[in-house]
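Hi there,

I know you've been waiting on this one. I reran it after we fixed the sequence typo, so this is the corrected version. Both the input and the resulting structure follow.
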Amino acid sequence: MSIAICIAAACLGAVLLLPACALARSATAAPASGIPATGVIGIEEGQLNADYWIRQQSKPDATILDPRAIAAQNKRLHELDASVHDIEHLPARLTRAQVREWIEAMSQPREETLYDERGEEIPAATLAALGDNLALDTIPAEQATRYGMVVRRADLRTFPTRLRVFNAKGDSDIDRFQESALFPGTPVAIVHASKDGKYWFVVSPLYAAWVEKDRIAEGAKAAIFDYTRKTPYLVVTGASARTVHTPEQPGVSDVQLEMGVRVPLLADWPSDKPVNGQHHYASHVIELPYRDDQGRLQFSPALLPRAADTSADYLPLTQANLVRQGFKFFGERYGWGHSYNTRDCSGFVSEIYRSFGVQLPRNTRDQAVSPAYNRIDLAEGLSHEERLKIVKTLEVGDLIYIPGHVMMVVGHEDGWPYVIHDTTGITFRDRTGELARVHLNGVSVTPLVPLLFNREQPTVDRITSIQRIRP
């Protein structure tokens, strides 16, 4: 390839390592620059769809892992990966030390200067009040383990607050208190309440953080975990799906369900029995959790339109399906920590794989080093040439990790891999040798090789590991 390409890592931790890229001029479609009309180096309009990449594969519909192999891999994840919480088998009583450890691991005092949405510095008194709201001194010496279930998509927060904070003036996009999101039907352990009574600290299978109480319904452990195992069920296979609006039962009205979410199907619902004031023949009758007036967990039938992108089971794990699932998010806005009702780079790949029943840790940090998968560790001392030999062997679905970012391989051009990823932007050198920056801020397809991480260093040389969800 005659054009040197540089992709700046999408997630903020990597972007902060790119001062040179911040000075780069914007890309244009000027012929002298060699940038295609798309404005993205190495990408033509015909490549902006799943079918283009699927046609390249010799066996696009061959099964990569069957359901038994996926179940075995998920079992390894829970056995070997310390970032995953087996909340179903927590002890019946939790100690103060355990609860405090969870909270302090998340809600660490902030020493750096932070700014609000207006670019004004967050006062030290405000940050101190956030620490006080943790109410660490009220954690009992011992407490019964309580359980709940997510009833609406819920933001996971570093501190029990909706305050959005940023690392720099003028940066109002990356909220440093936004951690992740939980989706309806997710079980959690409720381990503590904020001083103001508005938040719970919860431990979910993949993450522990603060969440607004009205997003969680407290219930009996048996009922919660029985719900997660009910059959038959539907799996959301579109980017998202939404239940039918119903004023009769607001708790299950307009509920957003993300890719890979599994919901019980009430397949034997009587044909002459309305669901929340509506005939159901145009919808699937599913069962959803909701929170009653006392904050307790209840379940109700709900309608999910048949037009929604769903499946009666997890999708077969094939190269064609991996590409299709990735492209269902194509063009969606990047959302740090699942901000903006969307997702970030690690959430993006997690939700793709969840539609096949494959579980991944939540963050790139944990995904990159998880011992549950077929991992290639790229040591720092590995030469550029040796790295190129490795990346040339990558296959569709392989996950590539650099500090703070992950990309998924979707295919190849001239033997070199292309990737789909949820990214803030890319930086590259055009044919004139000048650095150019494209502020993508969404799910995008880009070339991988050769890349520049900064003005001098190829991105390939920043790869820390490759996870292959395959034999």
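Quick highlight: Residues 1-31 have pLDDT under 50 and may be disordered.

Best,
R. S.
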